[in-house]
């Protein structure tokens, strides 16, 4: 661990917030950096920079600790921050820092229009808004008229240190290159002072020990936070799984209820089908009985017809025989009798022959 921390200390540059703070405590360096950030303000002097200054907006409110805090001869307030890691909360973080800084700009009993201006400046080792800009300057504006800036005295400035766009002034670019540990023109007075100041910081045994203690604490804190995040993640996963299980259970219950309904419906349909089958069987049996009755009646009618036909035939035979006897009694010629009988009773030659053969 000690070897790791020693190498970390040796390799640390301005991108390390501890080194940045100690370097920026130098009056001349802090003043020059502010001049390069805000050349239009023509800053002549500042108060001796203060690092890790803490402000509490209210007794029960979250306190804020500034990396570097100072004011200039015009009363403008400056908070300079080195942001190493992206915690995806930069916008809300700036708002809170600006609120704390702005509170210092309002003296008790002072009219609002006389409040000092406040500048919150963040050097980020990442693109804070993922928009590809090297510098972001934030002001309030009217939504309906975006170009109309609200002059409320608050200005937020964020630098995307890793950016290679070179959209800023060359002097400002040199400072950003120093933070990013890129090659820098050695003739720049600020670059010279920065290198000298970093060397002074690195030789300070007290600061070295404090850095290592702080690093150990931060690593322990990071480990604890990692465990807490992991625990929270597991709790969230567990809650999601429980919720998903509840959803699945509810879905299963609904499907079971639906299955029961379908089963009841199927049973009703089966019962109805059975009733229909029984009804059909009864109808078939009834139909069979009716057919049998019709057949019986038909047979009776056929038999009756046969009997009637038989009787008619017998009556016809009697009439024919009687007619033959009568005509013979009158001495009518046999040929005439046959012709008369045949035509009157519509008989065949065979039938006539049979009658006269008797």
General description of the model:
The structure is a single chain. With 358 residues, the protein is of the alpha/beta class. 60% of the residues lie in helices and 13% in strands. It has nine helices and eight strands. Strands 1-2-3-4-8-5 form a six-stranded mixed sheet, sandwiched between helices. The protein has a two-stranded antiparallel sheet with strand order 6-7. The longest helix is centred in the C-terminal third of the chain and has 125 residues.
Compact summary:
Helices cover 60% and strands 13% of the residues.
Biggest β-sheet, characterized?
A: 6 strands, mixed
The structure class reads alpha/beta
Number of E-type strands: 8
Sheet with most strands: strand arrangement? 1-2-3-4-8-5
Percent of residues in helices: 55-70%
Mean pLDDT score = 86
């Amino acid at each position: 661990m000690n070897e790791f921390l020693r190498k970390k200390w040796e390799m640390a540059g301005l991108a390390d917030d501890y080194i940045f703070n100690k370097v920026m405590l130098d009056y001349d360096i802090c003043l020059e950096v502010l001049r390069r950030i805000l050349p239009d303000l023509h800053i002549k002097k500042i108060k001796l920079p203060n690092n890790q200054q803490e402000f509490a907006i209210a007794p029960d409110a979250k306190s804020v600790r500034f990396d570097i805090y100072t004011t200039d001869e015009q009363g403008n307030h400056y908070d300079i921050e080195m942001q190493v890691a992206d915690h995806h909360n930069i916008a809300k973080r700036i708002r809170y820092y600006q609120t704390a800084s702005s509170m210092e700009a309002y003296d008790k009993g002072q009219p609002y229009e006389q409040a000092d201006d406040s500048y919150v400046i963040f050097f980020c080792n990442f693109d804070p808004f993922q928009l590809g800009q090297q510098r972001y300057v934030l002001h309030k504006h009217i939504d309906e008229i975006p170009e109309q800036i609200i002059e409320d005295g608050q200005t937020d400035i964020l630098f995307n240190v890793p950016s290679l766009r070179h959209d800023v002034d060359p002097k400002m670019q040199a400072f950003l290159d120093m933070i990013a540990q890129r090659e820098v023109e050695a003739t720049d007075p600020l670059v010279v002072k920065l290198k000298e100041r970093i060397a002074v910081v690195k030789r300070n045994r007290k600061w070295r020990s404090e850095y290592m203690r702080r690093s150990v604490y931060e690593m322990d804190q990071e480990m604890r936070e990692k465990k807490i995040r992991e625990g929270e993640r597991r709790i969230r996963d567990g809650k999601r799984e429980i919720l998903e299980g509840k959803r699945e259970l509810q879905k299963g219950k609904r499907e079971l209820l639906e299955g029961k309904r379908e089963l009841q419906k199927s049973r009703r349909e089966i019962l109805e089908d059975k009733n229909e089958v029984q009804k059909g069987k009864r109808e078939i049996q009834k139909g069979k009985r009716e057919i049998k009755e019709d057949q019986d009646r038909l047979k009776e009618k056929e038999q009756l017809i046969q009997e009637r036909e038989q009787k008619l035939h017998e009556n016809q035979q009697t009439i024919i025989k009687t007619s033959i006897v009568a005509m013979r009694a009158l001495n009518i010629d046999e040929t005439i009798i046959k012709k008369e009988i045949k035509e009157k009773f519509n008989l065949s030659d065979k039938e006539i022959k049979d009658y006269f053969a008797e």
